[in-house]
Amino acid sequence: MVNDPEKLVELLYELVESRGISGTAEEKIMADKVYSLLENLSYFKQEKPENLKLHKIETDPLGRTFVSALLEGRGNNTVVLLNHFDVVDVEDYGALSETAFKPRELTKKLAGMDLPAEARQDLESQEWIFGRGVMDMKAGLALQIALLEELSRDPASLEGNILFLSVPGEENSSEGMLAAVPFLNYMEQQRGLNYTGLVNCEPLKENEAGEFEISTGTAGKLLPLFYCFGKETHGMVPFQGLNSALLFAQLETVLELNSELSDSYQGVYSMPPTNLKTKDLRRVYNVTTPQVTAGYFNVFSLEQTPGEVLSKLRSLSRQAFQRSIDIYNSRLEEFCQLSGQELEGVDWQPNIYSYQELYNSVLEEHGEEINRHLDSFISDLKEEVMDQREFTLRLIDELHNYCPDRTPKIVIAFAPPYYPKFRNRGESAKEKFMLKVVDRIKQQAQEKYGEKLWVNNCWGINDLSYCGLQDSQDIVENLRPNMPAMGEVYHFPVEDLQKLNLPALIIGPWGKDSHKFTERLHLPFFTEKAPHLLRHTVKELLKY
Question: What is the CATH code of the structural domain delimited by 224-414?
Fold first, then answer.
């Protein structure tokens, strides 16, 4: 199939048309689709049916599954082929949403639409196909299935093994990859596999120099959540309280696009944070100022640890709190001068807690009784709330109800998901070997296809974050105690990740505009170059 462009494209269309929108029941259907395609290969149908498995994610409320398939050759060296089969939704397609999963039809319909200049140019070249998932990442999935099919025809000639892993949830919270981590450790120990590397076929990006970016690592991502507790008051007498919305507004001012929270590594800079959610906790309208306003921000990491991020957030939260006090005092003075009234203000002070500090203060006040109460509350909350961010917020709010300190404050916690930064540090023998393989792949691409590959060691956010845990001590000390959802509704396998140290590489097809209605895949690269680069990469990695 790798050598048959028409069959490869037909496989791609079949996978795209199977949909698989992330966070929906469609992901279960998509897993069944991948499983059925592999089940039809003679190797898994006749020789090794026990090597193809559909794994239910036990902790997943949607009942999602991931697919594993082990192709056994000679020896124990093993390459993991990783892909995700979920895609983002199609709301951005508007009236064309019904055709988003029909690349042929969609590509034709887009011809009559107003498109960005580059997308228009690509459409008219007739070298690109458009549609949801064509490049992110059904094309990579198709390449891996095709390679598995080719190599399974003669497994005895394969110098090593291939462990194919197809997971859900990458576009959401990586539930599939997190669930697969214990399985990877199990296979390594119980089947005697020696992992020499992991290959993820996410789509390549073209940089300004015309080079395609491959990657040996990924950026990290944190989701700090801020719980702003004010002093409520009637709207007629606002200076008798401190509006929690003012606290959060100043947090927004201090944090939004603040380059102090941008991170850098080897000349690459991560984007600064942006607000992803803001809300107060009132359920009905009234004229009392909101006691609690909360929200969360995207913070990326290339070098900084969770502890370092928390330290910066604490400092910036203190700044935001002081700005709120300054505004309160200046507005009080202005109003008194305007009205001639003599209003007595309140001497507010910046008051910042981490979630761990909040918990410790409540525990000190109430003893073990608070843990029994929280256990009961969490049990009920799990039945009521599906969203992990909302779960985090509601749990903080309940805990704060028992806090002896009732003055205004900002509580900092972390909400799911957490993506650790992960990259090839060139330290272990396997990491060094991967870097040598990358050099050979770059040479192959240049000499055979005239393509220049550029290595980005901290590329985007993806499932490579869960190939190991490089900040494990900091995560245990600073992240876990401040992420109340961890171990409750968010399952982050710290111990299993500590055991896994799997050098990884992203190399796949070429596409553009991921997560946009102009998402598209370059067909010539997909059919003529990507299959051979993938095959070459796998065979080189098996030579460890």
Answer: 3.30.70.360
